[in-house]
Design a protein that fits this description.
The complex is a heterodimer.
Chain A (H helix, E strand, L loop, with lengths): L1 H31 L6 H17 L4 H30 L3 H23 L4 E2 L8 E3 L2 E3 L1 H23 L1 H11 L1 H6 L4 H27 L1 E2 L3 H16 L4 H21 L5 H15 L13
Antiparallel strand pairs in A: 1-4, 2-3
Helix pairs in contact in A: 1-5, 1-8, 1-9, 1-10, 2-3, 2-4, 2-8, 2-9, 3-4, 3-8, 5-6, 5-8, 6-8, 9-10, 9-11, 10-11
Chain B lengths: L1 H27 L7 H16 L18 H23 L7 H19 L1 H4 L18 H28 L1 H11 L1 H6 L5 H26 L9 H14 L4 H21 L8 H20 L23 H11 L18 H7 L20 E12 L2 E12 L3 E5 L6 H9 L6 E6 L2 E2 L5 H6 L2 E4 L11 H6 L10 H6 L1 H21 L15 H14 L4 E5 L7 H16 L3 E5 L3 H7 L2 E6 L2 E6 L1 H6 L1 H8 L3 H4 L12
Helix pairs in contact in B: 1-6, 1-9, 1-10, 1-11, 2-3, 2-9, 3-9, 6-7, 6-9, 10-11, 10-12, 11-12, 19-20, 21-22
Classes of the chains: A mainly alpha, B alpha/beta.
Chain lengths: 291, 641
């Protein structure tokens, strides 16, 4: 029982990272309606930029923000230079998937060219793990959980109350109608890519801090965990993605504790696939919209 | 030097087999498998452990060790990869939206990779397998062995190119292409779309397994680091750059993108880190792929470049149709030689079919002697709601055989919903529909098609990348050679049928004035031409009941008049037609009878002239008050759209 609860605690820490990335993916899918396979490498890039900045002596928080901003800008550029021309032409969704994979490999190998393939150490030493109730969590985990929750709350407030948030929701609901109501959907989509890039980079840093190492494939190998969370939560529903992340995160760690840590990701994938067979629409019924 | 060449060619042939296999999945049928290389790995591992002896060296563990001859290992590898492919397909595609397939294939591949890499007793975990026996029994020199392997892999490649060529030209290949372009249209013409897809997915996986076996016999070692996601991606890039959907593009891509680039990479001086050259190559491939997709999405050799696509014999055009072809071809433009529509007949072949002289597989229209007056379709108290919106409410009417019935009513009257119910795309929530006195129950579109119902769509739907003639041929019922086995091994069974279908489709298209467009991709047709093509496609199915949802919407008046004449002639052969239309001029020239719907119910029915004067109809169109206060004019017969 104790072991289970501890695993759940680790799961919460994992979920807090997955949730950030999954919400980012979900937000982007909701306005552009395709899965961007390059998000995993967006995560790696964010972590590399943050690592480089902090190696150069920049304050940690500031270097994380630099990483976030860099990936946010990359997201906007990727949309402008790569995805938008395809979407304008109205290609099949499958083509966009392939383009995303192409972009993923370009970024991943560019990381190798810039930072070499050898893993880097990137960790914060904030002291020993603490017992909090039944859970055993490091201060880093606690900060990550707190930061993730705060960011998601902020995003929620933005989507619900700001004009821009409403514009995102309108665009995801019906892009043509949104345009004809005077919403500049190009701008909304660009900003969505920026926010998605920013959140993804933060998730990347969180992931790397949890694993203490950083390599060019770090993000890509996490990508399908994130997609799993998004699909479980119902595609294009950021709140569902949070729930999906919680399930996937806890599942991964519990499986790791009971079976074999080497198989934890596989088991999470297996369960996600099985769940999808019985509920193809996701746990919360997807309507392709943010409610 | 010679060894350099044979080595290059062996690897080129093996990679080509992989790309040909991927082409069957993605190019022919649009199934995106992002983890193709996992099937290669399965084939390689199985070929290795079945041909190697039992593990004896301490610290090295692997399963089986059967010491089988190489060919048995090769085939077992292919078969296991094929079975695994079929399993993954069944797991995902039948249940999930098709764009999930790409994601699920990767997830399944990850699980497999994880298992192979971690679980030692299977294939010795991350150390991998070494010293796999050569097919010549470890006796030959490196040069001699690469020559032997060249013969073997080239023979396999030739066999698989032949296979994919045969599939491409067969009814099976056409069915795959059609499913790739539009699943809904394909099932509306009686096909169950997942069956050809699973067949081709399995065949593609088999090719992957064979390629893996050849590769491991050649290089004699295999580790989990040999099948990372990058490998699958390079194969996909090779296919897209070469040109997917045809067999030459796959070969070209494999040699140009994989082999040539690998050779070039050898001459790039290594700079900085040792991994840089490989990384640079991957970046180049990624950039080339995106640029190709952007500026030449069909690849270097586009699918339609295959000479075979062209209809060889110029179609004998009926005198009237050829004059007409000019008119309809430019139907968006000037009103050309308008009045010269001659009274040419429905092509003889089709008339014969429609009149009941059909082969056994067709749904024998008119066998029961379609005497006019007899009821073919009987709609009884049918209702359907979308969520809370009641689109069709307690609707009842019958349609007599061989008549043209118009369905009119204001927007939201439930006309299109009724057509969807008749086509099987929707199922009545209450009430029933009788066809020939028998309830159609809960038939899906494919089932309705087999009962003899064909349709056109509200917005014309074409299989955009296929030539017009294939768009029409696909609809013929009961084709032989639509299964993989018949397609591959029983060409005699479908060769003559293909010629007959081609001829019939050519005649039908000529009759509808599309003779000069037989080989153009259907996506290049204008709106009016698409409508005409849809009629040809529906007739190709030899229907008893033809459903037409707004056949003249957005169509040039001249084409609209042609459609009217053709619909009359179709009805004259005994086919029953139900059409939705808003154009009163068109309706008055085709419809025997008009059913007026409003708010999901039948308001009235009768000849158009009578119906137009009906008080309720005017009220329904113009609102209740309008009946008195304004001039009660339903759009007049001369009006048009």
């Amino acid at each position: 029982m104790n072991q289970l609860l501890q695993a759940v605690g680790f799961g919460l820490a994992t979920a807090s990272v997955v949730a950030l990335a999954a919400v980012a993916v979900s937000l982007q899918v909701s306005v552009t309606n395709f899965f961007n396979f390059a998000f995993g490498d967006f995560m790696s890039l964010g972590a590399y930029v943050a690592w480089t900045a902090s190696q150069a002596g920049v304050n940690f928080v500031l270097s994380v923000l630099i990483g976030g901003a860099a990936v946010g800008v990359l997201g906007v550029l990727a949309n402008f230079l790569v995805f938008r021309p395809f979407m304008r032409r109205g290609v099949r969704p499958v083509t966009l998937l392939i383009v995303g994979v192409g972009l993923a490999f370009i970024i991943q190998n560019a990381l190798i060219l810039i930072w070499t393939p050898s893993p880097r150490r990137f960790s914060l030493n904030l002291g020993n793990a603490l017992h909090i109730g039944p859970f055993l969590l490091t201060p880093g985990d606690l900060i990550m959980i707190g930061a993730s929750a705060a960011l998601l709350l902020l995003l929620h407030l933005m989507l619900t109350y700001t004009k821009f948030g409403k514009a995102i929701r309108a665009t995801s609901n019906n892009i043509d109608l949104a345009q004809s109501c005077g919403i500049d959907s190009d701008r909304v989509i660009s900003l969505t890519w920026f926010i998605a890039g920013l959140l993804t980079a933060l998730a990347g840093v969180g992931l790397v801090l949890q694993e203490s190492t950083l390599s060019p494939t770090t993000g890509f190998s996490e990508l399908f965990i994130i997609f799993g969370a998004v699909i479980l939560g119902g595609i294009g529903r950021p709140y569902g993605a949070m729930l999906g992340a919680l399930i996937v995160g806890v599942l991964t760690e519990v499986a790791g504790a009971y079976v074999n840590a080497a198989y934890k990701t596989s088991i999470a994938f297996g369960v996600v696939i099985l769940l999808l067979l019985f509920r193809p629409q996701g746990l919360i019924k997807a309507r392709g919209l943010i409610r | 030097m010679l060894f350099f060449l044979t080595d290059l060619l062996v690897l080129g042939c093996i990679n080509s087999i992989m790309v040909v296999g991927l082409n069957l999945q993605y190019g022919y049928s649009g199934l995106l498998n992002f983890a193709f290389y996992i099937y290669v790995a399965i084939g390689a591992y199985l070929a290795a452990v079945t041909t190697m002896g039992p593990a004896t060296i301490p610290g090295i563990t692997y399963a089986l060790g059967w010491t089988l001859p190489w060919w048995a290992g090769l085939i077992i590898g292919g078969l296991v990869a094929a079975i695994f492919g079929a399993f993954v397909f069944l797991l995902t595609v039948r249940r999930l939206r098709s764009d999930y397939l790409a994601i699920v294939t990767v997830a399944v591949a990850f699980i497999m990779w994880n298992l192979i890499d971690t679980y030692q007793p299977l294939f010795d975990g991350d150390t991998g397998l070494f010293n796999v026996p050569q097919i010549t029994g470890n006796a030959s020199s490196t040069e001699g062995y690469s020559a032997v392997m060249l013969v073997l892999s080239a023979a396999c490649l030739a066999l698989f190119v032949w296979t994919s060529r045969r599939i491409f030209r067969s009814p099976f290949g056409r069915l795959l292409r059609s499913t790739r372009e539009d699943e809904e249209v394909t099932s509306a013409f009686g096909r169950v779309t997942w069956r050809p897809q699973i067949a081709v997915f399995t065949i593609g996986s088999f090719l992957a397994g064979i390629a893996g076996g050849l590769l491991i016999f050649y290089i004699s070692a295999w580790t989990p680091s040999a099948f990372l996601p990058l490998e699958s991606f390079i194969l996909l890039a090779a296919l897209i750059v070469g040109g997917s959907g045809n067999y030459w593009g796959a070969l070209l891509g494999a040699f140009v993108l994989i082999e040539a680039l690998a050779e070039i990479a050898r001459y790039v001086p290594s700079f900085g880190n040792g991994a840089n050259v490989g990384a640079l190559r991957a970046v180049v491939i990624g950039v080339v792929l995106i640029l190709m997709l952007r500026y030449r999405p069909e690849g270097i050799i586009p699918e339609r470049w295959l000479k075979w696509y062209r209809t060889r014999r110029p179609a004998p055009e009926p005198a009237g149709a050829s004059a007409l072809a000019g008119g309809t071809a430019s139907d968006a433009g000037a009103p050309s030689d308008a009045g010269v529509i001659t009274e040419d007949r429905l092509p003889a072949a089709t008339v014969a079919e429609v009149a009941g002289v059909t082969d056994a597989t067709a749904p024998a229209p008119g066998k029961q002697a379609d005497a006019p007056g007899q009821v073919l379709v009987d709609i009884r108290n049918v209702a359907y709601s979308y969520g809370g919106v009641r689109a069709v409410a307690d609707c009842s009417f019958g349609i007599s055989r061989g008549t043209v019935t118009g369905l009119i009513g204001p927007n939201g009257a439930g006309k299109s919903t009724l057509v969807e119910l008749l086509s099987g795309r929707l199922t009545p929530q209450s009430g029933e529909i009788l066809l020939d006195g028998r309830s159609i129950g809960r038939q899906r579109p494919a089932g309705m098609s087999r009962l003899g119902v064909a349709r056109t769509f509200q917005t014309a739907r074409v299989l955009a990348r296929l030539p017009v003639i294939e768009n029409v041929m696909i609809a013929a019922p009961g084709q032989r050679g639509e299964g993989p086995l018949a397609a591959l091994f029983w060409q005699r069974g479908w060769r003559d049928q293909e010629a007959a279908l081609r001829e019939e489709a050519t005649e039908l298209l000529g009759w509808l004035g599309l003779s000069s467009h037989l080989d153009s991709p259907a996506g290049s047709l204008s709106g009016g031409q698409r409508r005409l093509m849809e009629i040809a496609r529906a007739l190709m199915a030899h229907p008893r009941l033809l459903l037409m949802d707004e056949p003249t919407a957005g169509v040039f008046p001249e084409t609209s008049r042609l459609i009217a004449r053709r619909v009359r002639e179709i009805a004259a052969t005994g086919v029953t037609v139900l059409l939705i239309a808003h154009n009163m001029a068109f309706l008055s020239s085709v419809a025997d009878d008009v059913v007026v719907m409003a708010e999901g119910r039948v308001l009235t029915r009768g000849p158009l002239a009578e119906v137009r004067e009906h008080k309720d109809v005017i009220a329904a169109y113009l609102g209740a008050a309008a009946g008195e206060s304004r001039v009660p004019r339903v759009p007049s017969a001369g009006g048009g759209e």
